[in-house]
């Protein structure tokens, strides 16, 4: 019997991924995927290859045409203007947001070891913040 593999990047909704992140004390690692993206598969594979990444983050794909997503909202934010040229060239971007939907990081290109360190540090800060809020009265 052939086992169907599920895509860890596909979530039922952005609300459900935020709820799961809050419940489990994780951040959300997302890929902004323009229609006909030329490097999104490579971005996903690179992120998935980082050690312990799935223990620290929930994965989420934000497609250009996905209804109800915040694809355009992220690109309209002036802080992330550097992502727009890459997106216009059908290249993906990736980043991190917390369960409050606050974008903490947005980068272009295929992540390397340097970005793995950045992701690890963000996850560690979040882990300590989550433990603190869980133990507070």
Key features of this structure:
alpha+beta, globular, Glutaredoxin, 6 helices, 4-stranded mixed beta sheet, 137 residues
CATH uppermost class:
Alpha Beta
- CATH topology term: Glutaredoxin
Beta-sheet strand percentage? 15-25%
The strand order across the widest sheet is 2-1-3-4
Number of strands: 4
For the sheet with most strands, the description reads: 4 strands, mixed
Q: What spatial form do the alpha-carbon principal axes imply?
A: globular
Low-pLDDT segments = none
- Give the CATH H-level superfamily: Glutaredoxin
What count of helical segments does DSSP give? 6
The secondary-structure class comes to: alpha+beta
Q: Can you put this structure into words, describing what you see?
A:
This protein has one domain: Glutaredoxin (3-Layer(aba) Sandwich), CATH 3.40.30. Helix content is 44%, strand content 18%. The protein has six helices and four strands; from the N terminus they run αβααβααββα. Strands 2-1-3-4 form a four-stranded mixed beta sheet. It is globular and about 40 Å long.
